[in-house]
Amino acid sequence: MFLAWHEIRRAKLRFGLLAGAVGLLVFLILFQQALLNGLITQFIGALKNQSADVLVYNDQARQNLEGSVILPDQLAAIGEVEGVAVASPLGEATFTVQADGADTDAVLFGYVLGGPGEPTTLSSGRLPEGPAEAVASAKDKDDGFGIGDTVTVIGPGGALDVKVVGIADELNFSVAPTLFVDFDTFADAKRIRGGVGPEVPVQPSVVAIAVADGVDPQTVVDRVNAEVDGVEALTRDQAVAQTPGVSSVRTSFGVILGLFYLVVPLVTGLFFLIVTFQKASALTLLRAIGASARSLVVSLLVQVVAVMAIGSLIAFGLYAFAIQGFSSLGVEVEVLPAVITSGAVLALALLTSLVAVRRVLRIDPINATTGAGVNV
């Protein structure tokens, strides 16, 4: 232990540069992970954080809410499937709205009040209790979607005022402000957007299902798909994962993160291997005067842990600072993922350092009398 710290003090610049390099690489891992989570949440937060256990799409929609329409006879048939406790219409569409004096796009979800499909991450205010009331995405509360604000849906058919009565976290959909309203309000908004009268029926995008107590949602999914024609049922998690665009985003970021997880331990392991070769004569002499192989290995591993710990601290500081500039994406500093990432990188660094450990263990004290170093 003393040997490890003594060497670090004598070579502050060398170890400091390595810790800085590790810190930058770990920072990039943390930042990319946070960016991925933020983007995914902005894409599908509303789906992930609504209460339906199962969502049933039109089978021609390819898991796309915007392209799905459920017909009345399909809704009725779904409600008759064994294991379905409640089957309610759930609508989704994008509208032009006025909020805080400016025109913008917003996504409206319409659900049956008290039924499946309501938001589950309410952070302030209350859920809608009647027409023209909404729960809005928390990220947009300062842009005219805060509690007490009125959001106006505009279109060829006129205008519809909706009052925000609640705020929910991670509720955005398609990276747009999102409102959850009762289904009748959603239907009125669609008629206004289409410029049609109240006599025109509005069909739901999907069916939101609450499964019966003790029934596995996957079982209900299988039954609906087998018994009802023209539909595709998915559990909530499946609907989130299979939303168009989500898989490709995860894959792209996964490749980038995989490369970072490969580079960090390789850089660390290569550094300590080179250092081991450079100080081969000194290590051989230490072995000759009685230092045990175990003490030299422990010294090496202590240095690896120290470098990775300092690098992780640097990374977390950079991460916390950089995230502040991306609050508009809903990206937040998360301590637990940072700790897990640092632990994973440390474990990989220790693993790659085993090559240097092997070189240390192969030192032969007798070589001190011949001037030789490490046997390779």
Note down, in words, how this protein is organized.
The chain has 376 residues and is an alpha+beta fold. The chain has eleven helices and ten strands. Strands 2-3-8-5-7-6 form a six-stranded mixed beta barrel. Helix 2 packs antiparallel against helix 7, helix 2 crosses helix 9 and helix 7 crosses helix 10.
Briefly characterize the structure.
With 376 residues, the chain is an alpha+beta fold. The protein has helices spanning 2-10, 12-48, 72-79, 183-194, 217-227, 236-241, 246-278, 280-288, 293-323, 335-352, 354-361, and strands at 54-58, 84-99, 102-111, 122-125, 133-137, 150-155, 158-168, 178-182, 206-211, 231-235.
Shape: elongated
| Radius of gyration based on Cα positions | 29 Å
Distance between the termini: 26 Å
- How would you spell out the order of helices and strands? HHEHEEEEEEEHEHEHHHHHH
Estimate the helix proportion, in percent: 40-55%
Q: What kind of sheet is the major sheet? A: 6 strands, mixed, barrel
Strand order of the largest sheet: 2-3-8-5-7-6
Number of helices: 11
